Amino acid sequence: MAFLLRAARWGLCPWRGYCSRVTKGALSEDFVAALKAVVGAPHISTTAAVREQHGRDESMYSCQPPDVVVWPQNVGQVGQLVALCYRQGVPILPFGTGTGLEGGVCAVQGGVCINLTHMDRIVKVNTEDFSVVVEPGVTHRALNTYLRDSGLWFPVDPGADASLCGMAATGASGTNAVRYGTMRDNVLNLDVVLPSGELLHTAGPGRHFRKSAAGYNLTGLFVGSEGTLGLITAATLRLHPVPEATVAATCAFPSVQAAVDSTVHILQAAVPVARIEFLDDVMMDACNRYSKLDYVVAPTLFLEFHGSEQTLEEQLQRAEEITKHNGASHFSWAKEAEQRSRLWAARHNAWYAAMALRPGCKGYSTDVCVPISRLPEIVVQTKEDLKASGLTGTIVGHVGDGNFHCILLVDPKDPEELHRVKAFAQQLGRHALALHGTCTGEHGIGLGKRQLLQEEVGAVGVEVMRRLKATLDPRGLMNPGKVL
Ligand SMILES: Cc1cc2nc3c(=O)[nH]c(=O)nc-3n(C[C@H](O)[C@H](O)[C@H](O)COP(=O)(O)OP(=O)(O)OC[C@H]3O[C@@H](n4cnc5c(N)ncnc54)[C@H](O)[C@@H]3O)c2cc1C
């Protein structure tokens, strides 16, 4: 406690000093001039407001901002920037859209923030091969708008309008993963500027095959690497046919146990749900208030089914039978796009509805994932722990994958509360590990889960990661302080 108070007095982040600065030396005017010569004067900023904006994401972490922000216009410039930084020993911080939830963009040692949003071309759609090549500034919403009339779509949707390469960097997923997989399943190839300045095509230049047994899986290595191994400058992604028809449904349950049991039973019955999301009673209440809705305040499942008219009928009927058997009430469904989005409004605004529970506070989202058979026990226990903790929080989950979040509201100026939130998150992470799960289903390790990563993969696992990192980034300049 004394440490926390001291840290707060010094203006440091009390989360174990992760956010304190270990400056490698202020950037010289010559160095900044060299960066400017690469990107051009309009594409570089050292102003405090811009640096501040790039020194944080949507998480509760607040850190020192980077020393300078640059917006490269093409991959050649990215290579030159990286080479310059590496020669001078300056940390390199890739920045997508800053929607991350684990402090991934925080400049713990200062350095150069490389904002990739100006590289935003959709390079090529291979309609017959169901794939697309995008630059790092393209967001998943922009891609789906572009694909609107093609009969294809990209289903990985983390809720926020994140950049697709940022999503690859964090191994993101979201509501559709139960049917279509996560970024790990949907990235076919990546172009990566390595710390050496070389350009790597993880699956070979221009390749976009569906399967391969050729050597080590370099694409897999960079998905989830959180900017610590290189800068992703293009991604080849797998596309999917737009489903013939879609039905959304919601139903309320008498208990958390009944809602989560229904999820397990629906999956065990092999009903091919596209989305199955859980919101607890506190979350539903918050959503009702925030989005002016009138849902029953009870543990609730939101479901979505994709398929032909005929198969949808069967899926819906089976899911209704299972949920009713578990005591569900208020089963409602919607087919038309407008009705569906009204039905899903609560889920879509859940993060902001939770924030509105304590205006002025920051949100911290835990992110564990367990084998589906262990989901009921951990969600029920977490609900009890949350009540006992005295913290303000809600539970929301992509339960079809065994993945759920507690959104905890915390006053960033209250070090004692920050400490309690961290302790709660660590305890939940350890609970998931004890059930053979993972400490992060989709948000990544970032700043705060490095200890949990060690516990998850063990000493040998972490050592192999360290060696890989040292091989690619021997000076430790790629997004330092994250993951390892
Ligand atoms: C309301 C809300 C809901 C969310 N829901 C979900 C969810 O359901 N599922 C989910 O997975 N996430 C969710 N997120 C988190 C977030 O959207 C994802 O982590 C997303 O993948 C981050 O992408 P970004 O472009 O914003 O990356 P940033 O926040 O900019 O960066 C994240 C990390 O990736 C690195 N990075 C970014 N771009 C590159 C690049 N081109 N090359 C190398 N490294 C790079 C950064 O250095 C950093 O370490 C949510 C966030 C919010 C605010």
From TrEMBL:
InterPro entries: FAD-bd_oxidored_4_C, FAD-bd_PCMH, FAD-bd_PCMH-like_sf, FAD-bd_PCMH_sub1, FAD-bd_PCMH_sub2, FAD-linked_Oxase-like_C, Oxid_FAD_bind_N, Vanillyl_alc_oxidase_C-sub2
SUPFAM superfamilies in the cross-refs: FAD-binding/transporter-associated domain-like, FAD-linked oxidases, C-terminal domain
Keyword Mitochondrion found: yes
Gene Ontology CC annotations of this record: mitochondrion
The protein's Enzyme Commission number: 1.1.2.4
CC cofactor: FAD
Reaction(s) catalysed (UniProt annotation): (R)-lactate + 2 Fe(III)-[cytochrome c] = 2 Fe(II)-[cytochrome c] + pyruvate + 2 H(+)
Gene Ontology MF term list: D-lactate dehydrogenase (cytochrome) activity; D-lactate dehydrogenase (NAD+) activity; FAD binding
Domain of life of the native organism: Eukaryota
Any one biological process term the GO annotation gives: lactate catabolic process
Class of the enzyme per the UniProt entry, highest EC level: oxidoreductase
Compartmental location: Mitochondrion
UniProt entry keywords in alphabetical sequence: Acetylation, FAD, Flavoprotein, Mitochondrion, Oxidoreductase, Transit peptide
Boundaries of every FAD-binding PCMH-type domain copy: 61-242
Family listed: Belongs to the FAD-binding oxidoreductase/transferase type 4 family.
Assembly and interaction partners: Interacts with CSRP3.
Function: Involved in D-lactate, but not L-lactate catabolic process.
UniProt name for this protein: Probable D-lactate dehydrogenase, mitochondrial
Species the sequence originates in: Orycteropus afer afer
